[in-house]
Amino acid sequence: MNSWLAVSAGTLILYDYFLTIGREIELIWFSDWNAVKVLYLIQRYLSFVDVIHVLSGFFISADIRSSMSATQVLMTFGLAVSEAILSIRTWAMWKDYRLVKLAIPVYFTGGWIFCTVFAFLFANSIGLIYAPSPGLNGCWAISGNNYFLLGSWFVFLTFESGRRFFNSHEDK
Fold first, then answer.
1. What domain of life does the UniProt record list for this protein's source (predicted)?
2. With b meaning 16 or more CB within 10 Å and e meaning fewer, what string describes 48-79?
3. C-alpha separations of 157 from 14, 48, 108, 165 in Å
4. Minimal CA–CA distance to 141: which of 125, 120, 117?
5. What percent of the chain has pLDDT over 90?
6. Confidence at 32, pLDDT banded by 50, 70, 90
7. pLDDT tens digits for 108-121?
8. How many angstroms separate the most distant Cα atoms in the chain?
9. Pairing of strands 139-143, 127-130
10. What are the pLDDT digits (tens) for 2-21?
11. Taking the alpha carbons of 118, 121, 127, 131 in that order, is the dihedral positive or negative?
């Protein structure tokens, strides 16, 4: 990733933060603590950790594989927290139906276990080299097992389709 792209992404996140901090303080910070509030705060501030991690890669010489693993953990965790928030919303809409009430947590847990395993298998299969030119930073992926990546996305899309199906069929 180009360092200017990383800086612009970080700037956009800061801009969004300052645009919405007033409403966040009003609606989130002074509300009672619960699981959804914790998930929201993790999701809200995890993006700052992502930006710091990406930007530090341009200034600190680190092991490529360690940096790739950290990126994979942050991405997988961030997606899982986002999907957990959406799943809780779906679960709340269907609270009177036992099947849905049981299916969503089981489906979420199982789906994310498979997604995480596939994502890490894919990350470990990637062949990496340092940038081939002195003017370029970072590392380049030169190979990888696409079946692990496809498996991860297939499970994720199946989960997302099921969740959206339940959202579209709520009682009005």
1. Eukaryota
2. eebbebbbebeeeeeebeebbebebebebbbb
3. 30, 26, 12, 12
4. 125
5. 20
6. very high
7. 888 888 888 888 88
8. 61
9. antiparallel
10. 677 778 888 999 999 999 99
11. positive
Closest C-alpha among 123, 125, 122, 128 to residue 141: 128
| 126 to 76, 78, 139, 142: CA distances (angstroms) | 17, 21, 11, 7
Token output for 28: 């989130």
**Strand-pair partners of 143:** 127
Q: List, for residues 78-91, the tens digit of each pLDDT value.
A: 888 988 898 888 88
Residue 17 phi, psi dihedral angles, 5° rounding = -60, -50
Question: What's the Cα-to-Cα distance from 80 to each of 21, 84, 86, 112, 146, rounded to whole Å?
Answer: 24, 6, 10, 7, 21
